[in-house]
């Protein structure tokens, strides 16, 4: 492969990575929306989307929105989802199963309690320099992103939301939902305010979202 081919391949890989991240954080989009957001031509966007479909990374469906023809919208497949951080999910699920089977449910509860305390102490230490809820929330989103949750702070209709576009422990949380309850408790404690989960991956949503009362 010559230098020109290498450059083209790298550019295609970079574009596909941007599309994967965009669909992960925004949900299903049309080719036109992808092109507009990523500043590429409509033809270029369609070519990338179709190539990624052939690779098994994307699928599409036609969705009717008001009058006119249904719109072709693209979304990530399970194969594409697996490319995002998952904290060695298979290994973690196996370990949880062994703990439950060999040591009992109480041992698993104790393990989650220890994890909750360690996370809470770590978060509180990192948030200590911030005074307001919005400041703390912004830092918490940064921390969670570094942990693989692809978190961001979103404001909608004057309300703040902590949005996590990825769950690196999803497989483990599916088997043991105490992880999710534990994390919600941690958020409430470190932010010092009322928080309500409004979207939940384990209930079929594409992301987890939390309404924060600042």
TrEMBL record:
Pfam families linked: HTH_20 (PF12840)
Lineage of the species this protein comes from: Bacteria, Pseudomonadati, Pseudomonadota, Gammaproteobacteria, Oceanospirillales
Full protein name: Transcriptional regulator
Domain of life of the organism encoding this protein: Bacteria
UniProt xrefs under InterPro entries: ArsR-like_HTH, Carb_Metab_HTH_regulators, WH-like_DNA-bd_sf, WH_DNA-bd_sf
Species this protein is from: Aliikangiella coralliicola
Entries under CDD domains matching the protein: HTH_ARSR
A biological process from GO: regulation of DNA-templated transcription
């Amino acid at each position: 492969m010559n230098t020109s081919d290498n450059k083209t391949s790298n550019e295609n890989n970079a574009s596909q990575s941007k599309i994967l991240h965009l669909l992960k954080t925004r949900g299903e989009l049309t080719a036109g929306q992808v092109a507009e957001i990523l500043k590429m031509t409509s033809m270029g966007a369609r070519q990338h989307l179709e190539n990624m479909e052939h690779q098994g990374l994307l699928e599409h469906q036609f969705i009717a929105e008001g009058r006119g023809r249904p719109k072709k919208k693209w979304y990530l497949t399970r194969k594409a989802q697996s490319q995002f951080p998952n904290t060695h999910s298979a290994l973690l699920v196996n370990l949880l199963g062994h703990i439950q089977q060999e040591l009992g449910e109480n041992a698993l509860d104790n393990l989650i309690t220890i994890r909750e305390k360690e996370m809470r102490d770590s978060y509180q230490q990192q948030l200590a320099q911030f005074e307001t809820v919005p400041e703390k929330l912004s830092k918490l989103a940064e921390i969670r992103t570094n942990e693989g949750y692809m978190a961001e702070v979103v404001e909608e209709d004057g309300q703040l939301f902590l949005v996590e576009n990825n769950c690196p422990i999803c497989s483990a949380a599916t088997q043991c939902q105490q992880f999710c309850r534990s994390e919600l408790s941690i958020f409430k404690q470190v932010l010092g305010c009322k928080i309500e989960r409004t979207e939940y991956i384990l209930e079929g949503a594409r992301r987890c979202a939390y309404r924060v009362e600042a």
